[in-house]
Amino acid sequence: MELNSALGNHTGGNILRLKEYPKVELHYHLDGGVRPETIMEIAEREGIILPANDLENLIKYLKVSDDNDSLISYLEKFELPIKCMQSGSSLKQIAYEAVVDSSKQNVKYIEVRFAPLFHIEKLSSAKEAVEFVLQGIKKGEEVTGTIARLILICLRDHGVERNMEVVELAGDFKDSGVVAVDLAGNEKSYPAKNYRELFKKAKDLGLNITIHAGEGDGPESVRDAIYLLKANRIGHGVRSVYDENLLDEIKLLEIPLEICVTSNFQTKAVHSLKEHPIRKLLDMGIKVTLNTDNTTVSGVTITDEFELMEREFEFTMSDFEKVVMNAIDSSFVSKEVKEKIKKDIQNIIYNDKVSHLTTY
Fold first, then answer.
1. Are 195 and 160 within 8 A, CB to CB?
2. Which of 205, 291, 308, 314 has its CA 20 to 30 Å from the CA of residue 176?
3. 201-235 burial string, b = 16+ CB within 10 Å, else e?
4. Residues in CB range of 228: below 8 A, 6 or more apart
């Protein structure tokens, strides 16, 4: 059985090939995963001028280079996708393709996130943007069988008043596919304390909360997200490792971390792959989940991230099973759907173990 042809040294005999391994992804940005071919198609359809007219050169504007040195330069790669995500048809297409692409990596459940206020130039409202993305996600579900839900992002630099519209929209759509709200942006310049009113409203509406923290700022940003904003999960959270007391609190409170290893290195949340704390966090018993963040911008698939874990951090099949189960346990989908997905994944893993034992 193939698994990068030699995974067995670390897995005790190799079970599933990593691409076939069932996966769950909780941290996937819609505008960070647009197919370059789709950018070209939308640009032609909507009369958008591109900086390059061939795919090879266009990709340079969408994907970070291997030597990317900061979060600022990383975020520049979102300008072109967002420019091409201003119509209902483009949003629906890109959301549909996000689910299709994830299904090809054997993702059984995915939470897609986007900031509706970034996508209203050709629409009448942010509500319309949400509706089109939900249509695309649902079509993707029907075609692939991969279950998908939506998270709406509030932006730190938009302030409370503008973001309140996003929170209220999430409340309006919480029974129609929206499962949570997020806060993203410059952690240092816009601290969590500024948004207590906003996320109190989210809690009052019965919404789940995930907060980008510990990516562009230190452990206090993570602590504030948990205690001031009542986060159910933390996006990234890698700089929590600089505060052992905080790590103990995260473990005690069972706060899941949405880890994105390749992205964390590219944005310099960590200075090298070897410094990434994912191995330490997992071994501590913290609820680690593994995600791509942005498949196109980072140039990775979720399978690539799994392969990186085996290669650089000596993940075993037991470790992969743990992060996948952490992810489905930490997902914001309904209890009934969660139990179904969990059972399906466990059956796949169990059946392959049995097959492995009987074949060899």
1. yes
2. 291
3. bbeeeebbbbbbbbbbbbbbbbbbbbebbebbbbb
4. 192, 193, 196
Q: Looking only at Cα atoms, what is the longest distance across the chain?
A: 62
Residue 130 within a domain: yes
Domain that holds residue 127: 21-359
Q: What is the mean pLDDT of the chain?
A: 93
pTM over 0.90: yes
Burial (0-12, 13-18, 19+ Cβ within 10 Å), 196: middle
pLDDT for residue 246 is more than 50? yes
Instruction: Decide if 288 contacts 281 (C-beta within 8 A).
Output: yes
- For 33-49, the pLDDT digits (tens) are 999 999 999 999 999 99
- Of 215, 220, 258, 310, which one is the catalytic site residue? 215
State yes or no: is 215 an active-site residue: yes
Total domains present in the chain? 1
Task: For residue 280, tell me if it sits in a domain.
Answer: yes
Reduced to 3 states (helix: H, G, I; strand: E, B; else coil), residue 233 is strand
Please name the residue ranges forming H helices in 108-157: 126-144
The backbone torsions φ and ψ at residue 182, rounded to the nearest 5 degrees and listed phi first, read -130, 160
